[in-house]
Amino acid sequence: MERTLVLVRHGQSEWNEANLFTGWRDVALTSLGIKEAQRAGRALKSHGFHFDLAFTSALRRAKDTCKLILDELGQDDITVVEDVALNERHYGDLCGLNKAEAAERWGEDQVHTWRRSFEATPPGGESLRTTAERVIPFVEERILPEVVSGKSVLVAAHGNSLRSLIMDLEGMSPEQIEELTLATAVPRIYRLNEDGSIAKRYDLKDEE
Ligand SMILES: O=C(O)[C@H](O)COP(=O)(O)O
């Protein structure tokens, strides 16, 4: 499987379960999150995926998801590059706050805008635009050259760091990216052409 890029958001975290803004807080996967990551690994295995290299963030929920997937594939020996560039968007002053309570305090629209728009900056945090400014250079310098050279690459990261990557890769507009929310542990598969353009894209949905 040449020139393959697989993006996967981490499995459910303790703060996803508690509905708290997480950002760079380093929380663990829940037992459901562990199962979700293992299921993603089994789905990739049953579809014949095999990776040459993996990238993940510096946060344990993504690192653990990456490891659980590679364990299921019997590939715990491949190189895994960890980098803060792939960390979740920093949620600033919202970190640790309950998302429903935040919507009551600031209004549904404001909270939705902070969470999904390209430009809005949560107080003291990163917008999707500023998240992209650290994600995209890393992807262009470290990840895409590996894929274009013919490798099969896994990236286990976060809802918003991956949204910024997907927006760039798929050439989405700010309006289009606002509509995209990534489910936990659903692999998003890309086959790339020699010039780095997308030949094919699909989600590997759970068949169990
Ligand atoms: O950091 C967080 O709280 C989550 O990982 C993603 O949050 P969101 O759904 O509000 O973007």
From TrEMBL:
Can you tell me which residues form the catalytic site? H10 (tele-phosphohistidine intermediate), E88 (proton donor/acceptor)
Does the record bear Cytoplasm in its keywords? no
Q: Which PROSITE patterns match?
A: PG_MUTASE
Q: Which residues bind substrate?
A: 9-16, 22-23, 61, 88-91, 99, 115-116, 159-160
Name the catalysed reactions.
(2R)-2-phosphoglycerate = (2R)-3-phosphoglycerate
State the PANTHER family in the record: PHOSPHOGLYCERATE MUTASE
Q: How does it assemble?
A: Homodimer.
Q: What family does the database annotate?
A: Belongs to the phosphoglycerate mutase family. BPG-dependent PGAM subfamily.
Record-given protein name = 2,3-bisphosphoglycerate-dependent phosphoglycerate mutase
